[in-house]
Protein: ABC transporter permease
Organism: Vibrio panuliri
Amino acid sequence: MVTVTKVLFSRHIYALRFKSASIRVNIKNVSIAALMLLTVCALTLFALSVGKLPFTMTQVIELLLDPQRAESGFQAKILWDIRLPRVITAVFAGAALGIAGSIFQSISRNPLGSPDIIGFTSGAAAGALIQIIYFSAGSIQVAVGAIIGGLATAAVVLALSYQGGTIKRQNIVLTGIGVGAILSAFNGLLLVKGEIDSAITANLWLAGSLHARTWEHALPVFAGVVLLLPLAKLFSAAIAGLELGELRAQSLGIRVLKLRLIMTIIGVSLAALATASTGPIAFIALAAPQLAVRLRNTANLPIISSALMGALILLIADLITQLVPLDINLPIGRVCGIIGGFYLLWLLTRTR
C-alpha cells in the first residue's frame, strides 16, 4: 500500500512511501512540468494543422488515430510524410538542446554555459559540414559526423580546462568561447573551399531550418532523447551535489571528474543530434534551462523541465516562421539567433 506524507517545513513536497522505499515529490514542480507537457501536445496538434493546406483539429486527430486512413489519401500523405516529421524534429531537437543546455550550465555553474556559447555546437556543425561538403552524405552520416565533431571539440575544451588534477569549471566557458571562434572560422573556410553545389547546400543547412524534414531527420534525434534523457535524469542528483562545490561533492562520494565526463558525453551527443537534424540553432540551449528555473523557482537546473521548455520554444519559433504574413520564408535558426542575442544581452545585464 502506498502512503502519502507531507514533508515538514515544505508546502509543496510530499513523500510517497511503499513498504521500505520512499520518494519525495514536489507537487508544484510536477504540476508545472505537466502543464508544459500538455502545452507541447496542444501546440503539436496545432502545428500539424498549419500549412498551405490547412486541416481542422478534428481532421488531424482522425488522421493520426485511423490507421486505414493514414495508409492512403492525399491528406494523410501530407500529414504523415511532411508535417509529422517536421513537428517531431522540432519537439525532440528542442528537447535535446534544452537537456544539453541544462547539463552544461550545471557543470560550469554558469548561465552562459550552453553548447552554442562554449563551442560544442560549432564542433558538431564542423563534423556535419565535412560530411555534407566532401562526402554528400545522408542524414544518418551527417548525424554521426556531428557527434564525432562535437565530442572532439568537447575533448579539446575539457583538456584545455584541465588543471591541478581536475577540470576547472571557470575555464570551461572561456576556453569554449575561444575554441568555438576558431571552429566558426573553420566552418566558413569549408564553405569557401567546397564545390559550389555542396557549399550552397551546406550554407542553407547552417541557417538552421525545419523545412523539408523527413523521418531520416526526425528518428535519430527522437531516439537520442528517448535513450539519453533517462540516463541524464539518473545522474541529476549527483549533478545537484556537484553544484555545492567540488570538495563537498567529493565528501559525499561523488567522483567529480568521471561525472563531468559522462554528462559531457550525454550533453554533446544530444546537442550534436539536434544540430544534425535541424542545423545550428542558437538560443534554445541557453534560454530553456534558465526559463525553467525561473518558472519553477528552484536553484537546481531541472532536466525534464528544460527538455519540455526547449521543445516548447522551438515549436513556438517554428509556428512564428510559418504564420508570419506576406509569405516570408524565415530560417528558424536565424529567428532563434536574433531572439537569443537580445536574451543574452538581457542576461548579461542581470548576471554578475
